[in-house]
Amino acid sequence: MLDVLSGFATIAIVIAVGALVAHIGLVDASAQVLLSRIAFFVASPALLLTTIAATDVSHVLSGNLVATAAGAAVPALTYAVVGHRVWRRRPGELVIGSLASSYVNSGNLGIPVAAYALGSASFVAPTLLLQLLVLQPVALALLDSDRFGRRPRARDLLVRPFTNPLTIGTLLGLGLAVTGWSLPTPVLRPIELIGAMAVPGMLLAYGIALRLGTGLGGDIPAGELALTTVLKMIVQPLVAWAVAAGLLGVQGHALLAVVVCSALPTAQNIFVHATRYDRATTLARDTILLTTIGSVPVILLVTVLLGH
């Protein structure tokens, strides 16, 4: 239990450092943009390559993947429908809002939580690869299409993701994992070093944005922020639990793993995507903040109720 709290505390401290350097005037808003771009185009692809290359992809084929996918699909689609009908959000804003409602922090928080709270980092593999190989490429294709001011076409969904640095890093890592090949040490070490910049870069950029950006909620309706937060913290883990336990008959430690991974907070890289495409940045920022704080008691409660 203490290890779970330690993982959250580490993230909070790095975010606080970003807010501090902005508060004392050491950096300005341009630093947040620069850190986000470096994380998006350089560091994150390197991190994804090395992370997935070391992942046992057989876990993706388990029945738990169905529950994980359902847990992500229900809140994402719910926000997309409500966001369009109630707040008339544009396509790019709907994508970011849907991601904020369903895309979990499976990397820099999910891996240590799975390792320490569940006993093995492999438990987060289905969530990690589902997001990186399916949800993220589709979302980025839609964001790219929205940026160019036209409706996404089938060709966009098939081709454009493979021009994105994050997807390229993911696919290269998957290729290494499937074939069992390893990069030569002189090649691997620089990639690992660059990849190590991704998580702190994203967290520092997020801290800077918290300090220099608008206050909580900013210019977005309180109801919209409440919706994304509830969908992520409550609806997603509940759906994952219902599908895993009710439809698939998953029990014991495997059920705990599915629900805990679905209860992880919104990933910081959603804020990076929002900044990169200039879509719903305040909604992404504040949903990450609220779900990161709220997920601590949620995960602890899940551990108490389902743990053995």
TrEMBL record:
Source organism, top-level taxon: Bacteria
Major subcellular location class: membrane
Keywords in alphabetical order: Cell membrane, Membrane, Transmembrane, Transmembrane helix, Transport
Single GO cellular component term: membrane
GO biological process terms on file: transmembrane transport
Bilayer-spanning residue ranges: 6-27, 34-54, 60-82, 94-117, 123-143, 164-181, 193-213, 225-248, 254-275, 287-307
Subcellular location field: Membrane
Entry-linked InterPro entries: Mem_transp_PIN-like
Topology term for the membrane: Multi-pass membrane protein
Keyword Disulfide bond: no
A family per Pfam: Mem_trans
PANTHER family cross-referenced by the UniProt entry: AUXIN EFFLUX CARRIER FAMILY PROTEIN, TRANSPORTER AUXIN EFFLUX CARRIER EC FAMILY
Protein name: Putative transport integral membrane protein
